[in-house]
Amino acid sequence: MSLRDELAGVLSRDPRYSIHAYAFMFEALEYTKNLKKRAQVRSRGRGSRASKTRHVTGRELCEGARLLALSHYGLLALVVLNQWGIRATSDLGEIVYNLIQSGDLEQSSDDSRADFDQVYDFEAAFRRDFVLALDDVA
């Protein structure tokens, strides 16, 4: 079964976001969990075991999604996300809560849809100071 088939109900209930947006959020969730795990290992030292918790907060997921989008798409990250219907961190929250409603993700008692609101400004977060070095033409 494909992701499109699995998410057919979600896509029909909320057509604002493409299937690519949902696939990206699943990938961003795993990426964020791995970032968190590595940070825990670094803070505890190599001899300690990392916490078993795999939960990430809305804020952490927004930051992980930002880093993943920049890693995958560079200067085009904002354009790609906008094409999928993602224009603000609140859209990331809408996607997550659509997946919670469908049973594809779980919500902890501490989670709130508002955790995703105004985490960062999309325009500022995806604009990077790229410097294109041009060779001197003789």
Provide a descriptive summary of the structure in words.
With 138 residues, this protein is mainly alpha-helical. It has one domain. Helix content is 56%, strand content 0%. The chain has seven helices and no strands. The chain has helices at 3-6, 8-13, 19-44, 58-73, 77-83, 89-101, 122-126. 24% of the residues are buried.
- What's the story with the biggest beta sheet? none
Radius of gyration: 17 Å
DSSP strand (E) fraction? under 5%
**What is the 3D shape?**
globular
Low-confidence region ranges: none
So how many helices? 7
Can you give the helix content as a percent range? 55-70%
Order of helices and strands: HHHHHHH
The structural domain count equals 1
How would you describe the oligomerization state of the chains in this entry? single chain
Q: Structural class per helix/strand content?
A: mainly alpha
CA distance, first residue to last residue: 58 Å
- The overall strand count is 0
The whole-number mean of residue pLDDT values reads 87
